[in-house]
Amino acid sequence: MRPPVLEYPPTDSNTFHLSDQFLVGQDLLVCPVYEPGRRERLVYLPEGRWVDYWSGQYFCGGTHIVAPAPLDRLPLYVRAGAILPMEQPVNHTGERDGKQLCLHIYVPSPQPDKGGAKDDVLAHLELYEDAGEGFGYKEGRCATTSVVLRPAKKRGLRSRWPLRRGSFCRPPENKCWFTFTSTNITKMC
Question: Looking at 59, 79, 99, which one is the last position of a domain?
Fold first, then answer.
């Protein structure tokens, strides 16, 4: 958890005094409501493109927006080009079976198949994994996987899952990809 000023260039002076929103990692902007009875709030989206986590609507950054904030939905925005790894909710890490990993991919362009060199990276994630408990990571029982999404040669998207680096082995898993664009959500398993 960190303030946006630590992640965005010093030229973006709007991030200097943001005290009521924060980043989780580099890609997830959390904008809580601190006033009772409020059902919307002013949000500053830093430079770049952002996607409303709940609706999939794209926004240009470097501007303020009014975000809906009903009681059952925290305003969340994902940086376009991000890949968010997700698992089923659990109460604690001891309940986690680690068998299904879903990647929520937020494609930067609403039309990813409209060109771009084959080496252009649309989204990238360095996925770190370990047992989630204990100190095995100190002895090297961990792994990192680089996940890259690029434009395909013809139309659409292609992803690359190289072998993991490291000694941690998670249970056999289901991998699911959800790609988000401004026009659709596609599930690929």
Answer: 79
